[in-house]
Design brief:
With 472 residues, the chain is α/β, with parallel strands linked by helices. It has helices spanning 15-24, 46-51, 53-72, 87-112, 171-174, 191-202, 222-234, 327-341, 370-375, 391-396, 424-436, 441-445, 456-465; strands at 3-9, 29-33, 115-118, 120-123, 128-132, 139-149, 153-155, 168-169, 183-187, 206-210, 238-240, 243-251, 254-261, 264-270, 272-275, 279-281, 314-316, 355-357, 362-367, 380-386, 402-408, 414-421. The chain folds into 3 domains: 3-155 and 280-348, FAD/NAD(P)-binding domain (3-Layer(bba) Sandwich), CATH 3.50.50; 168-277, FAD/NAD(P)-binding domain, CATH 3.50.50; 353-465, FAD/NAD-linked reductase, C-terminal dimerisation domain (Enolase-like, domain 1, 2-Layer Sandwich), CATH 3.30.390. The structure holds flavin-adenine dinucleotide and nicotinamide-adenine-dinucleotide. Residues 9-15, 32-35, 46-48, 52-53, 56, 120-122, 150-153, 171, 192, 282, 285-286, 318-320, 325-328, 330 line the site of flavin-adenine dinucleotide.
Length: 472
């Protein structure tokens, strides 16, 4: 029987990063992954690289260039007659990006001497994992001193709106449309609904998002959420709140979607429907019962702060456990677990995990919202600065949005930073770094920021916490 120090099940951003870090620390490591491309070939990278973060951002970037050509460039005096988008070419580019990055992980595995086992992994008793090839009944059992489960998540399916992969699709289907659906319905105005809705709206779809909640993006700071809501509606996204979808059916080449708004039944007809109502932890086929591994009421593997399960030697990370379903959260947990297995003090600071929603402008935040700080009952101060106060924003034609900083009123420690604006995904890194070092708003206010840059909005918002912003 082949024996390893560590066997990782799942090669998404949680699993593959954990495997590389284990190997870096001198542990003999294997990583099992069941992913197959549409051509039936094994691929590393999990949801994130194959049907998540990377392909969605490739399409967001392509569609953003197209809309820039039409909306922004004329302001710069640049006009192009009859701009055209070739969806087949756009999709081929996206597929190329995915292929480049997933095969890059195979190279990294070779470099770090991680053994890649393409197949399905299941627990086979204490310190044993069975690896099964697709179509094979027989499996190979391997031994591992430690096991890391990183099997991720899958789209949540609702029986009343069954995905048929043609008219009613999940996020993976929506990343693979081969033409622009004239009328596109989306169930759920969450992260996926807004990102994929933006892609197809920019390319010409009439997009209706049906969202059960009354509040738009409840996890986001209210001021930022309201500004984003207004901006996205202005771009043509028809976001209907308090609209709970009760059923969806494909019939005669279109989809009829029934929903309830203020206790009244409504329906719309669309050409394609994306179901984006959340994701659920994936543990199917892991045979958790063979070792007595415990799940919570949402089907997630129960772990402590250090990603230890109830079974010694079995760890679980990423989307399959509690916490935000984010690639960077999965990766950091992978690193921390690998370091703990190697006897080091791996640690994840869950209080400062950044979130980004890649609409345009982007929405990004870290730490607490104003409402959270308020409900904790601690005195606080806020400072904000609009991008329209910045020279660089005017030069670029990107004046929409703001930066808002929330700081403790007694210690001035930064509690949260919220950004709505172009390049918010990049700008938020400064806030995360500051918070990781327990910086005060005054610390940020005294750091030199290059001029002219969008980052000056962070500087000005920090100054504004002390009511001394210079350009407002
Ligand atoms: P996954 O990436 O889901 O990987 C799990 C892997 O385990 C898969 O390859 C699966 O095949 C494999 N597996 C499962 N069971 C077994 C088994 N028994 N044996 C062998 N292999 C198995 N997050 C961000 O941070 N930023 C973004 O911009 C972003 N965009 C997204 C866009 C979309 C459309 C979607 C759907 C998600 C997006 N996410 C984003 C979320 C992100 O993809 C996940 O949080 C991340 O992939 C979780 O990583 P993971 O390693 O836990 O699991
Ligand atoms: P989500 O939880 O963000 O949004 C789902 C939405 O669907 C919710 O607002 C919910 O109220 C709504 N909903 C549920 N049932 C409904 C019904 N019957 N009718 C109308 N609305 C309904 O989930 P998601 O958008 O599917 O994304 C899943 C996860 O993937 C995210 O939470 C995130 O962790 C991850 N993700 C992250 C990024 C990123 O980091 N940029 C991008 C995409 C996905």
């Amino acid at each position: 029987m082949k024996a390893y120090d560590v066997v990782v099940i799942g090669a998404g951003p949680g699993g593959y990063v954990a495997a590389i870090r284990c190997a870096q620390l001198g542990l003999k490591t294997a990583c099992i992954d069941a992913w197959r491309t549409p051509r039936g070939e094994p691929a590393l990278g999990g949801t994130c690289l194959n049907v998540g973060c990377i392909p969605s951002k490739a399409l967001l970037d392509s569609s953003h260039h197209y809309s820039t050509l039409k909306q922004l460039l004329p302001q710069h005096g640049i006009t192009v007659s009859d701009p055209h988008i070739d969806i087949t070419a756009m999709q081929a580019r996206k597929d190329g990006v995915v292929e480049r990055l997933t095969s890059g992980i195979a190279t990294l595995f070779r470099k770090h001497k991680v053994t890649w086992l393409a197949g399905k992994g299941g627990l086979a008793g204490e310190q044993r994992v069975a690896v099964t090839q697709p179509g094979d009944n027989a499996s190979e059992v391997i031994a591992a001193k430690d096991i890391i489960i990183a099997t991720g998540s899958v789209p949540l399916e609702l029986p009343a709106m069954p995905v048929d992969h043609t008219f009613i699709v999940d996020s993976s289907g929506a990343l693979a449309f081969q033409s622009v659906p004239p009328r596109l319905g989306i169930i759920g105005a969450g992260v996926i609904g807004l990102e994929l809705g933006s892609v197809w709206n920019r390319l010409g779809s009439e997009v209706v998002l049906l969202e059960a909640l009354e509040q738009f993006l409840p996890a986001v700071d209210r001021q930022v959420a309201q500004e984003a809501h207004k901006s996205l509606k202005g771009q043509g996204l028809d976001i209907r709140l308090d609209a709970r979808v009760t059923s969806a059916r494909a019939n005669h080449g279109e989809v009829t979607v029934e929903y309830v708004h203020q206790n009244e039944a409504h329906s719309i007809n669309v050409d394609k429907l994306i179901v984006a109502v959340g994701r659920s932890a994936f543990t199917q086929g892991l045979n958790l019962e063979t070792v007595g591994l415990e799940l919570d009421d949402r089907g997630r593997i129960i772990v402590d702060d250090g990603c230890r399960t109830n079974v010694p030697g079995i760890h679980a990370i990423g989307d399959v456990v509690r916490g935000p379903m984010l690639a960077h959260k999965a990766s950091e947990e992978g690193i921390a677990v690998a370091e703990r297995i190697a006897g080091q003090a791996g640690h994840v600071d869950y209080g400062i995990i950044p979130w980004v929603i890649y609409t345009h402008p982007e929405i990004a935040w870290v730490g607490k919202t104003q409402a959270e700080v308020e409900s904790a009952g601690r005195p606080y101060r806020t400072g904000s600065f609009r991008l329209s106060g910045l020279g660089r924003a005017h030069a670029a034609g990107e004046t929409q949005g703001l930066v808002k900083i929330i700081a403790d009123a007694r210690t001035d420690t930064i509690e949260g930073v919220h950004i709505f604006g172009a390049h918010a995904s990049e700008l938020i890194a400064e806030a995360v770094t500051a918070m990781a070092f327990h910086a005060s708003a005054e610390d940020l206010a005294r750091i030199v920021h290059a001029h002219p840059t969008l980052a000056e909005a962070i500087h000005e918002a920090a100054l504004d916490v002390d009511e001394r912003a210079l350009h407002r």
